[in-house]
Amino acid sequence: MKITDIKQQVKRQGRYSIFADSKYVFSLSENELMTSGIRIGREYTPQEFEDLKQTAVEDKAYMRAIDLLSRRMRSEWELRDYLKRKEYEPPIVDKILNMLSDKGYVDDFKFAEAWVRNRRLLKATSQRKLSMELKQKHVAEDVIAAALSGDETNEQDVLKGVIAKKRTQTRYQDEQKLMAYLLRQGFNYGDIKDALDQE
User: Fold this and answer.
1) Is the whole model's pTM more than 0.85, yes or no?
2) Are 94 and 112 in the same domain?
3) 78-84 contacts, C-beta under 8 A, 24 or more apart
């Protein structure tokens, strides 16, 4: 097959449509286009062309994963689940995750550390709740424990802050409702009782 045209895509900057024998066949990122050496007029055997198509599939999966990571860090499981939902075959998913891992883009420990740090900035919450959230992202328990061990936030101060904030709301004047809320946030029953007694 002969490459007859290469056109930059209008909607996706940095991606190029490849045409063979005057028909669209696949697209590549700018980086992959340069690496592959594809150019107009070049001819490929059927096997070489199949290899190119496979490269295009992997390239698209990789760029999708990068796009997802550009919005926020993700756990390895989140990326794996995303690529599965995009219907990529397991060998391709593994290959993409290995590539991302080699470049330091996928690291569950860094992800867990960032998750704890960001959640601390955004909302007063307990370590138990943070641990539960990370478990939902399928982060390993030893990784969660290591990330939380670096969290120097005083849990008692956080609890007192949440109580003070919730006491300004009418519904949380009721002790039972406030206690139920705090338990849902992952705070320890004994700590809640002590904090309420000290009010």
Assistant:
1) no
2) no
3) 78/137, 78/138, 79/106
